[in-house]
Amino acid sequence: MPFLHERLPNGLDVVAETSEAAVSTSVGFFVMTGARDERPGIEGVSHFLEHMVFKGPPGLSAEEINRSFDRIGAAANAFTSEEDTVYHACVLPRYQADAVELLARMMRPELRADDFDLEKKVILEEIRMYDDQPPFGADDRCRAAYFGKHPLAASVLGTIESIEALDVEAMRDYYRRRYAPGTMVLVASGAVDFAALVESAHRLCSDWEPQPLTARGQPDQPRAAALPGVERIVRPAAALEYAVRLTPGPGENDSDRWAAGLLAVVLGDGSGSRLYWSLVDPGLAEQATLGHQDFLDAGLFVTQLSCEADEVDELLARISDTYTEAIRGGIPAAEFEQARNKVAGRVVLAGERPRRRLFDVGLEWAHFRRFRSVADTLQIVESLTLDDIHRVLAAWPLDAPSATVLAGPAEEAGSGSRASALPRGEA
Amino acid sequence: MKQQLFSTTLDNGLTILGETMPGVESAAVAFHVPAGSIHDPPGRCGLATLAGEMCLRGAGGRTSRGIVEALEGVGVQWGHAVSTTHTSFSGAMVARQLPAVLPVYADILRQPTLPAEEFEGAREMVLQNLAGIEDDPAHRTLAALRMMHLPNPWGRPTEGVTADVESMTIDDVCGFVAGRMRPAEMIVAIAGRIDWDDFVRQIDALFGDWQGSGATPVPAGLRGPHVGHVPHDSQQTHIALAWSLPPYRSDDSAIAGAVVSMLGGGASSRLFTEVRERRGLCYGVSAGYQTQRDFAAGICHAGTTAARAQETLDVILAELDRLPGSIEADELERVKARVTSGLVMQQESTGARVGSMARQWYHLGRIRSIDEELTRYDQLDVPTIEQWLATQPPRDLTVVSLGCDPLEVPGAIPA
């Protein structure tokens, strides 16, 4: 699968991974901005702006954009995270130029005040929708507790209060600073006509003015300091208790991120892992998983548990014991190899989908200015050793004090439990 | 495009479907047994789900752990699902692993040991899942809608009912597996980098000597009330509506599918435009077409702050009411473009092709090529759709709300 790259004079990178087997073309603009780039007072602006981009540039309405995407049968959408805002469309190859033109025009939105007021209602509905669902805000609250003053403490959606208080001028200012050609990438995957893609980019994007590169939201401390403790969000009507627990892990800039991902599969994958056999298989928990999440300069191990409220302290303690046992006793070779084969299988299957490759190729370029093929990834996974896993286990102790947030009907921790013995964090 | 599609039926009634996709390294396979929630006995809602879980907890010479290790150890992404009509076991993998993996699935289906010591764990797992669903407002709303709109037992939840699952025994599971897991009307579908003849030989060797007669048809009973409310302590009120449509195997199903898509299928659909883009009432609002073999429904769903729920319902009802006589050529063209993209892009996913082929065989008794399916939509024009809508406008709606307070449903048949 050839990789192609070209840079426009204004700094906009155009990259593509082409595939002969593909019957679709995926294109996207990857903007290197997200919740961590928001100053106090504009929390949630990156995600709100992502919605506003679909309201159109001067002379193009939201309804016209929606019709234009549907007219070419595009599967078009966008997402915002802590570090990225991504706009993407997947079309039949004959519509490549139409999809690129539409997305490129959208990248210069007018940010009209009446659209802003209307869309604010939709954002507030989105916040309420998530607040009604498990884990009932425990994930955002736990990241805030864990990261403290680090910019990654920010919630992507923002809060009802921050969104209600946001005004359109603040969004326009944020947009001008963050949507510059030097911090954006035009990415394509699948059946790509690269010459036509570059031609489109020149025609549609070369008048985008470069901006002085502003530093991304930087941490106040070099590495986030975990604030150990347990907080509770009380939801009397919830059927189950939901727990989120964060401990430090390698970041995206650390070559141990791959071993960390594999370790999470061994200990806490959705099936066939240690947590699965000890908690989910016997029906003690609805969910008990460990995942590894990485950011530019920080990483997390994320433990998620859902179970009956009166079991939560006991089961969190059992999860800690599972981690301690792995740290002390190590991982047997057979268990390691099963997990590595599982991850390798996922890499191959995901690599077959051009729509999925768009995100892998685009985020890798946006974060590191480099290309990693499916074969490269497979090679990395297959070369991992048991030593790598044991090194991660030792360097990032999963049973160390953590930030933990519980959401559900429980109002107080059960007596004598170890989780409640930890110091309580700021509520 | 020229697809390589295959089908054959063994003497015992098991049908094998296949598509070779030379552009991929993977293969996806699925085994569908006609043992769904409609086959749950009265008072045993969720038995198919529990039985499927038990089949995974020991089969042939393998333990529960042995089964998972045999699949995940060679990188299989496996799944187990129970629908209204079928129990399914599936897997996606690098194609060269198939010969090692197929015997594991054969054991799960033919030789489950149903160990008594695994029963409590399996039942607790099903109960945990049911408790989790209690916290999912959208799922609960749509489950309540299906329960009211569809004839019994088609509307019953595949995941089960807590009180029923609590009363089940290992004997219930053994009885269900003995009575329902059989080759007649079973579908095995595969897509990817495969050799069709080899695959048929393997399936024949693994399943050819399995005997067991077909399931007796399940009669459709009474449906529920037309209007309902589920009390739930939440900020948002969820709204779901259903009305009857011709099933997939009907000649008119492409018309019905197109109408539902115009109503709530894409970003330029009527509901998205009127409810979200023009009024900002919702984050999510959509409509979809859901079919069984003998009946189908159009289903709309939206979630919004309680204070704006009545307005949201009123706008959705007005859009349903406005459909006949208002179809525009441009919106039909957009539906065709979306359908075309979706069908062509199935070619990039072995899992999507397996699902599509198995559904078509169940509904039609044959596989429709992607080209044939495309033609059904290409032939549609505005007069044909208007003619159909004139005789079959959305009516006899079922409306469910979930939230703090019930909504006014104008002109509704009282519950």
Summed up:
Chain A is α+β, with helices and mostly antiparallel strands and 427 residues long. Helix content of chain A is 43%, strand content 18%.
Q: Main beta sheet of chain A: strand number and arrangement?
A: 6 strands, mixed
Morphology call of chain B: globular
- Got a strand count of chain B? 13
Shape of chain A: globular
**Residues in helices of chain B, as a percent range:** 40-55%
Mean pLDDT of chain A: 93
Q: Which CATH-level-2 architecture of the largest domain in chain A?
A: 2-Layer Sandwich
CATH classification, class level of the largest domain in chain B: Alpha Beta
Order of helices and strands of chain A: EEEHHEEHHHHHEHEEHHEEHHHHHEH
> For this structure, what is the CATH homologous superfamily of the largest domain in chain A?
Metalloenzyme, LuxS/M16 peptidase-like
Topology:
The complex is a heterodimer of chains A (427) and B (415).
Chain A lengths: L2 E5 L5 E6 L6 E7 L13 H9 L8 H10 L3 E6 L4 E7 L4 H11 L6 H19 L6 H10 L12 H6 L2 H11 L5 E7 L3 H12 L23 E6 L6 E9 L7 H12 L5 H7 L6 E8 L4 E9 L4 H18 L3 H19 L2 H15 L5 H9 L3 H10 L7 E6 L9 H4 L6
Helix pairs in contact in A: 3-8, 9-12, 9-15, 12-14
Chain B lengths: L3 E6 L5 E6 L5 E8 L13 H9 L2 E2 L2 E2 H9 L4 E6 L4 E8 L3 H13 L5 H19 L2 H13 L12 H5 L3 H11 L6 E6 L3 H12 L19 E5 L4 E10 L7 H12 L5 H8 L7 E7 L4 E10 H17 L6 H17 L4 H15 L5 H9 L3 H10 L6 E6 L12
Parallel strand pairs in B: 2-8, 9-13
Antiparallel strand pairs in B: 1-2, 3-7, 3-8, 4-5, 6-7, 10-12, 10-13, 11-12
Helix pairs in contact in B: 1-4, 1-7, 3-8, 10-11, 12-14
